[in-house]
Amino acid sequence: MNDNTLKRTMKLHHLVIFGVAFLTPMIAYTIYGVIATSSHGVESGSICFAVVAMLFTALSYGHMAKAYPTAGSTYTYTRKAINSKLGVLAGWIVLLGYVFFPMAIWLIGASYLSAAVPAVPSWVWLIGFIVITSLINFIGAEVGSKINFVMVAIQVGIIVAFLIFTIKAITEGMGEGTLASFSPFYNPDIDFSYTVAGAAAACYCFLGFDALTTFTEDAINPTKNIPRAIILTLLACGAIFLVVTYFTHLVHPSYDYANPDNAAYEIAKQVAPSIFGAIFLIGTIVGQFAAGLSAQASGARLLYAMGRDGVLPKKLFGKLHQARKTPMNAIFLIGAIALVAIFLDVTKATAYINFGGFVAFFFVNLSVIAQYFVKQKERSAKGVVLYLIFPILGALLCLYLLAHLDRFAIILGCAWTVAGIIYLLVLTKGLKQEPPELGIDD
C-alpha cells in the first residue's frame, strides 16, 4: 500500500457541508447592499439569474471532475482538455481570484466594523485584518473541518434569527407589510439590465463551489459524489441566498442606503433588538475572518506552486520558511496587495474578483466541449445537449454577466489578462516552447 495515497473518507454529505462552509452562508447579507443597488431593488430576481448561470458551469465542473479524477482546477482542465499554453493563461486568471479574494473579504469585514465604530476609519480595520491574518498564516495555523462545521452552524443560527426578526417586522407593517410579493423578483419599472448587473454582483456569493474538485482524491466514489456535491452545494446556497434577499427586500424595499457596503447591518438595527445588532456584527466578522484565513492560505499555496515550478520567480515564491514551512513571501505579498482595498469600495472589489471567476468558468465550459464533444466524440442526442449546448450556454452566460460588471473592474481585469498574455509569450519564448507545468493540482 502506498503511504502517500490520500484516504478516501469524505462522503457526499461531508463534501456538501465543506462546500457550503467555503461559500459562507452569511455572504448574502454581507454584500446585500451591493446586490440591491446594482439590481435597483430586484435582488431575488438577480439571485435566480445567477443560480441558473452558475448551474451550467457547475455541471461543467462535474463533467471535468469525471474526466480527470485528480485534484482539479480550471488550469488543470484547460491544460489537459484544450492546450497547455491556454492552460497557463487560465491559471494566470485563476490567480486573479486567489490573490485578490482575501482583499475583498477583508474589505467587507472592515466596512462592517467601521459602521459599528464610526470613530475608527475603515482603513485601520482593514490593516488590522491583513496583519493579524497574515501572521496567523505565517505561523501555520489551519482551520480544520470541524471548525468549518461550527462556522456553518453559527452562521445558519444568525440567519434564522435575522429572518425571524425580519418576518415579525413585516407582519407588523414595516416595509411592504406583506409576506407574499413578487417585487423582489421583478419590477416592470426596472430595466432587465439592472437584474443582470445584480446577478453579476451576486455571483460573488457563489465563487468557490469549484474548490470541491480539489477533494477528488479524498472523496469516496469521486466520479459520482464530486459532481453531485457541486450541484447540491450550489442549490443549497442558492436557496439560502434567495430566502435572505426575499425577506430583506420585503422589510426594506428601497435600495437607498447610507452605505451599501453594510446595508444588512443597518437593517438589523431597525428590525431586531439592539443586542442582535452586536451578535450579527460578531457573526459577520468571525465569518469574514475565517474566510480570509482560508483564502489567503489558498492564494499563497498557489503562488508557491507556481514559483516552485518556475512559472513565477522561484527565488521569491518557490521557497518555504525554514522553521515554519509556510510560503512566507507569498503570504505577505497577498497581504501587501490587499492594501489596494484602501482605495476601493466593496462593489469594485467584488466585481474585480468576479472578473477572474467568470473568465475561469468560461474556460471550464470550453474544456467540456473540447474533452467530450471533440476528443471523445460524444455526439449522441444526449451528448449534444450535455457536452455542447449546455457548456455553450454556460460560457455565454458567463460572458454576458462579465459584460455587466463594474466598468473599473472590467478595465483592471482586462489589464491583468493582457499582462498574463505578455508573460505567457515571455515564458514560452513567443509560444515556441511548452510552458513548465504548474503544480496547482498537487
Overview of the structural elements:
This protein has 442 residues and is mainly α. It has a single domain, classed as Amino acid/polyamine transporter I. The chain contains 17 helices and no strands. It is globular. The N terminus is likely disordered.
Task: Give me some keywords for this one.
single chain, 442 residues, mainly alpha, Amino acid/polyamine transporter I, 17 helices, 70% helix, 0% strand
Helical stretch count?
Answer: 17
Total domain units: 1
- Overall geometry comes to globular
- Describe the largest sheet: none
Q: What separation lies between the terminal Cα atoms?
A: 20 Å
Low-confidence stretches: 1-6, 141-145
Integer average pLDDT: 84
Succession of helices and strands: HHHHHHHHHHHHHHHHH
Strand portion:
under 5%
Total beta strands: 0
Radius of gyration: 21 Å
Concise overview:
This protein has 442 residues and is mainly alpha-helical. The chain has one domain (12-427): Amino acid/polyamine transporter I.
Mind sketching the topology for me?
Layout: H1 12-23, H2 27-30, H3 32-39, H4 43-67, H5 74-81, H6 84-116, H7 122-139, H8 145-171, H9 192-202, H10 222-251, H11 263-271, H12 274-308, H13 314-317, H14 328-337, H15 346-375, H16 381-403, H17 407-427
Helix pairs in contact: 1-8, 1-10, 3-9, 4-9, 4-10, 4-15, 4-16, 5-6, 5-15, 6-7, 6-12, 6-15, 6-17, 7-12, 7-14, 8-10, 8-12, 12-14, 15-16, 15-17
